[in-house]
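Would you mind writing out a protein's amino acid sequence and the numbers that encode its backbone to help me picture the idea?
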Amino acid sequence: MTSLSRREFLALTSTALACLPRLSAAPAGAPASADAEFYRDWLGTTLVEGQYHLTDRPNLLEGAEQMLALGTRVGKFWFEPHRAARDYPWHSRWPEMKTLRDLADSPYWREVFALPFHTLFLETHSPAESGWNADHGVDYYARIEAEWEELVRFLYAEHGHKPLTIVLQNWEGDWQLRGIGVLWDSPPADWRQRCGRYARRLAARQAAVTRVRAGHPSARLRVLHAAEVNRVADQWRGIPTLTEHVLPQVELDRVSYSCYDAMEDGAMLTRAIDTIRRFARTTGPLGAGAVCLGEIGIPEMAKPTRIAERWAELLAAARAAQVQWVVQWALYCNESDNRSERQPKPPVTDPHRLQGFWLYRPDGSLSETGRVFRALWRGEP
């Protein structure tokens, strides 16, 4: 597919850009616009391993409540039994949990599911999936399917009456496929076998979700399964990617895109979204071409210029491309900015020791991104 020129991109997104409100403050109590209603259900944020906290509430609940207070109804969280205490440690006592169902039934998650979110993205990895990149037989994939089925049955049994979408997905599949940070300019000899194993793993997860969902046709709850890709632009250079070599092997409800490799401008982001749609086989409730931006962030301490302008262009591109959700990274920053030095022990209070992927800074003030997003969510002019 030929990439758009900047002139073509600006023509394509002119309508979407016009939809983005001005980002100055509005009077207290000003009514939310219809566009704000759209952004509340389209644009969300993430919490995992935040390096600080703002209240004495249990960490997971604090983050979920802060998201809703800002105005969004879309939240993204990590959902793995063995690492919950690491992901959400502050003021929390997590019970022992061995399965995905155990985690969903834990007290903190029961409270989150009761909150007025419309969409929850859960980065989900079952204990049965450990060691996926080995040559397993059918019993291995059957165990994955069984554990996922147990989770989804529990979700429908406990929350089927709620008007809620839960999206279960992996995190950055190209890094899982290769190893974090591995660039495959010279891919390993077994890269095709890895892709096949990854596709079988995704298929087992999807089969469980599809089967249980089909058994609850009248439920208000909707559970979806997605695969997340993150090195889409490599495909343009002939490098093997999850997009080109795994997605065509498996039918999915949706594809999530962690899009840091295509944030140069809106035209590049649009091209990457089009590339995913060319290879993906999305056949679930969302239909063909079901793509969202599952992770997108601007590190304000590391790259402090043109924050509002960049968000305006990237969100306009995403809206013009009709992606179904956009999820920002993150509510609280989880990345140190001083990797050559000894990292400070959390909670971190000095913002200069962090990259600046945040809506809230460690002192509780809104970042520039936080002010941009709050204006969108609240319909502030």
